[in-house]
């Protein structure tokens, strides 16, 4: 009898924690009163997606499951412009944008778009912790009613192509897919290239059939979108340390109880800080994969070519700043660069 009782208690000791855990999971799922929908047009390997994974973890942990986060990658809810529009209707609650694309809705954000705006990662971090970024936070709030919660990144953008490029002059007449912001198109023309408007989700095919000769993006994007299948060459121009606004829907936040709104806002801000350092290292890792596994060849910009490219784009930066009424902020960005 004692042996039977002991055995029964032992089995119960194993079953009870499992039952308690199951009940806790069930209680957590039923307790979720709000669902935050996060969307990106990028794949799961992207830094944008990882930023949303970090956001999901922080939001669900800190709210005790009262808010659940659903992530929609791969453009299933549309491209960047469509996602931005859906944030206004409540179909999307969080996204991470390229600055050039979001500038279609908040022009001031285009201050981060021109090539060679940032000297290095330290310079970029100094800018996003300055009054430059505070101006953008206010502009997003005023124009869209949303919250610019922090800057995310995909990494450092370089030129990649179907045929080998070795120097700045090799960009002349190159049919290159770039983002369509006015400052970026102007900069690539000034650098001698021929910008070709191409939707990002159509770029893989355009490279394959030769509609464009090359494009510019991060190592993470080259790997994640499999651009290496048609473009085995990377010229390390180092022209864009990507500063990508993370936008949280004001419409979503305003329907939350004050306590949950505070937790979500802080989680979003913390996810940006965590993702930034992660994505920088992730991009370097993906460069190694591209070279070692997929045979991608890289060429370095010479110091003279780099200096010439920076000089050409400096004029574009100030013209862009004047267009969007951000001259003061552009001057601050330039002053901060001298420290790094």
Please characterize this protein's 3D structure.
The protein has a single domain (32-337), classed as Bacterial extracellular solute-binding protein, family 7 (D-Maltodextrin-Binding Protein, domain 2), CATH 3.40.190. It contains 13 helices and eleven strands. Helix 2 (47-62) runs antiparallel to helix 11, helix 7 runs antiparallel to helix 12 and helix 12 packs antiparallel against helix 13. The chain is globular. With 340 residues, the chain is α/β, with parallel strands linked by helices. Strands 7-6-8-5-9-11 form a six-stranded mixed beta sheet. Strands 2-1-3-10-4 form a five-stranded mixed beta sheet, sandwiched between helices. The longest helix is centred in the C-terminal third of the chain and has 35 residues, at 258-292. Strand 1, helix 2 (47-62) and strand 2 (67-72) form a beta-alpha-beta unit.
- In percent terms, what proportion of residues is strand? 15-25%
Q: Describe the largest sheet.
A: 6 strands, mixed
Measured on Cα atoms, how large is the radius of gyration?
23 Å
In CATH's first tier, which class applies? Alpha Beta
Q: Give the count of helical stretches.
A: 13
Please state the average pLDDT score. 91
CATH topology: D-Maltodextrin-Binding Protein, domain 2
- The overall number of domains is 1
Question: Roughly how much helix do the residues carry, as a percent range?
Answer: 40-55%
**Order of adjacent strands in the largest pleated sheet:** 7-6-8-5-9-11
Topology:
Elements: H1 2-31, E1 34-39, H2 47-62, E2 67-72, H3 80-89, E3 94-96, H4 99-102, H5 121-128, H6 131-144, E4 147-152, E5 156-161, E6 175-177, H7 182-190, E7 194-195, H8 203-209, E8 214-217, H9 219-224, E9 233-241, E10 244-248, H10 250-254, H11 258-292, E11 297-300, H12 303-323, H13 327-337
Parallel strand pairs: 1-2, 1-3, 6-7, 6-8, 9-11
Antiparallel strand pairs: 3-10, 4-10, 5-8, 5-9
Helix pairs in contact: 2-11, 7-12, 12-13
């Amino acid at each position: 009898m004692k042996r039977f009782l002991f055995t029964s208690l032992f089995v119960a000791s194993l079953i009870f924690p499992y039952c308690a855990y199951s009940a806790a999971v069930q209680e957590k799922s039923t307790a979720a009163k709000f669902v935050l929908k996060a969307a990106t047009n990028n794949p799961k390997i992207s830094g944008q997606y990882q930023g949303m994974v970090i956001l999901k973890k922080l939001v669900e942990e800190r709210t005790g499951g009262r808010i659940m986060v659903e992530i929609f990658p791969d453009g299933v809810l549309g491209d960047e412009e469509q996602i931005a529009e859906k944030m206004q209707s409540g179909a999307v609650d969080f996204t991470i944008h390229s600055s050039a694309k979001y500038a279609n809705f908040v022009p001031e954000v285009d201050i981060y778009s021109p090539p060679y705006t940032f000297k290095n990662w330290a310079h970029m971090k100094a800018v996003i912790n300055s009054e430059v970024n505070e101006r953008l936070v206010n502009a997003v709030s005023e124009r869209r009613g949303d919250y610019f919660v922090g800057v995310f990144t995909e990494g450092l953008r370089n030129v990649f192509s179907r045929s080998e490029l070795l120097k700045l002059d090799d960009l002349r007449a190159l049919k290159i897919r770039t983002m369509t912001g006015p400052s970026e198109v102007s900069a690539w023309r000034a650098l001698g290239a021929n910008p070709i408007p191409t939707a990002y989700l159509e770029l893989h095919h355009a490279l394959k059939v030769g509609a464009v000769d090359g494009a510019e993006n991060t190592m993470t994007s080259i790997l994640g979108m499999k651009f290496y299948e048609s473009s085995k060459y990377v010229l390390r121009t180092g022209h864009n340390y990507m500063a990508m606004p993370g936008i949280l829907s004001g419409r979503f936040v305003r329907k939350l109880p004050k306590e949950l709104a505070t937790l979500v806002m802080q989680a979003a801000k913390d996810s940006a800080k965590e993702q930034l350092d992660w994505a920088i290292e992730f991009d370097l890792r993906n460069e190694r994969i591209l070279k070692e596994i997929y045979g991608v060849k890289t060429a370095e910009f010479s110091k003279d070519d780099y200096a010439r490219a920076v000089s050409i784009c400096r004029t574009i930066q100030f013209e862009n700043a004047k267009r969007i009424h951000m001259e003061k902020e552009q001057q601050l960005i330039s002053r901060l660069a001298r420290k790094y």
